[in-house]
Design a protein that fits this description.
This protein is 47% helix and 8% strand. With 215 residues, it is mostly helical.
Length: 215
C-alpha cells in the first residue's frame, strides 16, 4: 500500500524523525531505509532501542499511527491512477494486499479510497510473524487466496518489499519509489520494472503470468 497506492513514505519518515527530534535524539543515517517494510512491532522497537526515543514500543507506535491517521484524514495522499489501476486489475484477477502498515491504517485508507471491495484479502505485517523482507506476509496472502505464489504478481516499490515478494516465489513487478529508490541488488530481483503505477496494466500482468515456452 505505502509507496504503491499512497504517497506516504515521506510522511512516515517525517513523523518518525519528528519524534526523534522532540526527544533530542539524532536520526541514524540508515534509519529510514532500515524501517521500510518492518512490521509495527519491529519499527516501534527500533525507534525505542536504536534511535532511543523514550517510552515503550507500544506507546511510540500509538503516537506514530495516530499522527499518520490524522494526516490521512486531512488529505489522503493517493498516488495518481491508483484507484483506476486497482479497479482494472480487480476485474480480471483476485487481489491481495500485503502491507507493512498497521491494520487500522489499511482499513481507513482503503475505505477512504473506495477500494475496500477490490481486495479479497488484506494483511498487515503486524498480523504475521515478521515484517518484510521476510516472505511470510506474501505467502500468507497467497494461502488465503488459495493460489500458488508462482502464479501471482507482486507490485512493490521498496527494497524490503521486493526481497519479500521474491523470497515468497512470486513474479515481481517493481515500481521504484522516486524519493526512496530500492537498492540495486533488490531491484535486480524484479521480473519487470515499471516507471510509474499507471504502467501496471492488465496486459502487462497477463504477459508476466503467461507460461514461458521451452526449447
Amino acid at each position: 500500500m505505502d509507496g504503491v497506492l499512497i504517497e506516504s513514505e515521506e510522511l512516515w519518515d517525517e513523523i518518525r524523525r519528528g519524534l526523534a527530534a522532540d526527544a533530542g535524539r539524532p536520526w541514524p543515517a540508515d534509519a529510514t531505509r532500515a524501517q521500510q517494510g518492518m512490521s509495527t512491532p519491529e519499527w516501534a522497537r527500533y525507534l525505542a532501542g536504536t534511535v532511543g526515543i523514550a517510552g515503550t514500543p507500544e506507546q511510540i507506535a500509538r503516537t506514530v499511527i495516530d499522527r499518520l491517521a490524522a494526516a490521512y484524514e486531512r488529505e489522503l495522499p493517493l498516488i495518481p491512477g491508483a484507484v483506476e489501476v486497482v479497479a482494472r486489475l480487480a476485474e480480471r484477477w483476485p487481489l491481495g494486499l500485503a502491507s507493512s502498515s498497521p491494520r487500522r491504517l489499511i482499513d481507513s485508507v482503503l475505505h477512504a479510497a473506495g477500494l475496500t471491495g477490490s481486495f479479497r484479502v488484506t494483511l498487515s505485517t503486524e498480523e504475521v510473524a515478521a515484517g518484510k523482507p521476510d516472505p511470510v506476509v506474501y505467502r500468507t496472502v497467497a494461502q488465503r487466496l488459495g493460489l500458488d505464489p508462482s502464479r501471482m504478481v507482486a507490485v512493490e516499490d521498496s527494497s524490503n518489499g521486493l526481497r519479500s515478494a521474491s523470497a515468497a516465489g512470486m513474479k515481481v513487478l517493481a515500481v521504484p519509489h522516486s524519493a526512496f529508490p530500492p537498492a540495486a541488488d533488490a531491484l535486480a530481483l524484479a521480473d519487470v520494472v515499471a516507471e510509474r503505477l499507471t504502467d501496471v496494466t492488465p496486459e502487462l500482468v497477463a504477459r508476466m503470468l503467461a507460461p514461458t515456452s521451452s526449447g
